[in-house]
Amino acid sequence: MKIIQKYRSEWKYCEAEPELVYLKERLASILPYDSNADENGKYEINTLYFDDYKDTCAKLNVSGEGKRFKYRIRYYGKNSGQLWLEKKEKINSYCHKRKCVLLLEEYYLIMEGRAMDVFWGTEERLLKEFCIDIVTKRFLPRVIINYEREAFVETITNIRITLDYNISASDEIERFLTGDYRKIPVLEKKKHVLEVKFDDILPAYIKTVLHGNILMQSSFSKYYLGRIAIQEKKKYNKTI
After folding, report:
1. Structural domain that includes position 201
2. Which of 31, 75, 121, 226 is the most buried (most CB within 10 A)?
3. Taking residues 194-217, what's their average pLDDT?
């Protein structure tokens, strides 16, 4: 039986901190915080992105158009013992995400180049797909992206609005689980990212809040900009 994938709208904005602080205050008056947040309404996200030997995922992000996807392994806060494998697929500004639990032993096997051992030992369809792409398309870990997230949710209509602060990148892949990797800023100081995700229609009362600020929608990829930040850092180090 063919599985029909439902794609969600995903609007992205890269804004200065004062505008986002003002917008956050307005959102907090109409929407609850994500239940996973701490007492300050935030939580940390650590993500390890993969790409093939041609860097296809990074190159497709340059235009921000067409159909593309990314594999990533993620954990929240300091809880690196709870890993998630995700595959995010996009068609222009629409996205679809699948995810499954990734066991620590499966993570270590993948990082040791033993993806087929994981393939034969799991029933998770997504994990099997990932292992096949590792072997046939030579997917490898490329960059760690770290940031602090503040999220507002509307559960009935499945709306999620996130503010991502202090986005950084690291190529110290071996330190992913320990979290003590060197962090290189991805954006200029005091610049952060707003994302709005919804299924079909964004209610007028939320649109009013968002459009109260002058926001410029953009095609923004944390993964792609993280790769660029790492490359620029390496170029700089060679010149000193």
Report:
1. 8-239
2. 226
3. 84
pLDDT of 240 = 57
pTM, two decimals, is 0.91
CATH number of the domain enclosing 62 = 3.20.100.30
Asked whether residue 3 is domain-assigned, the answer is no
In a domain, 1, yes or no: no
Does residue 21 lie within any of the structural domains? yes
**Which residue in 125, 110, 38, 108 sits closest to 77, CA to CA?**
38
Identify the CA nearest to 18 among candidates 195, 207, 194, 219. Answer: 194
Residue bearing the bigger pLDDT, 6 or 111: 111
Q: How far, in Å, are 11, 77, 188, 235 from residue 240 at the CA level?
A: 40, 35, 22, 9
Task: For residue 73, give Cα distances in angstroms to 7, 42, 43, 84, 142.
Answer: 21, 20, 17, 6, 11
Q: Give the total number of structural domains in the chain.
A: 1
Task: Reply yes or no on whether the pLDDT at 215 is more than 90.
Answer: no
Vertex 227: Cα angle to 67 and 187 (nearest 5): 100
Query: If residue 150 lies in a helix (H) or strand (E), which one and from where to where?
Result: strand 140-154
Q: What is the pLDDT of residue 238?
A: 64
Whether residue 156 is contained in a domain is answered as yes
What proportion of the chain, given as a percentage, has pLDDT over 70?
92
Helical residues (DSSP H) of the chain, grouped into ranges: 17-28, 56-63, 104-111, 115-121, 125-136, 204-211, 222-239
Of the candidates 86, 98, 88, 130, the residue with the CA atom closest to the CA atom of residue 111:
130
Q: Is the Cβ–Cβ distance between 147 and 164 less than 8 Å?
A: yes
Measure the CA dihedral 224/226/227/233, to 10°: 150
For residues 134 and 119, the answer to whether their CB atoms sit within 8 Å is: no
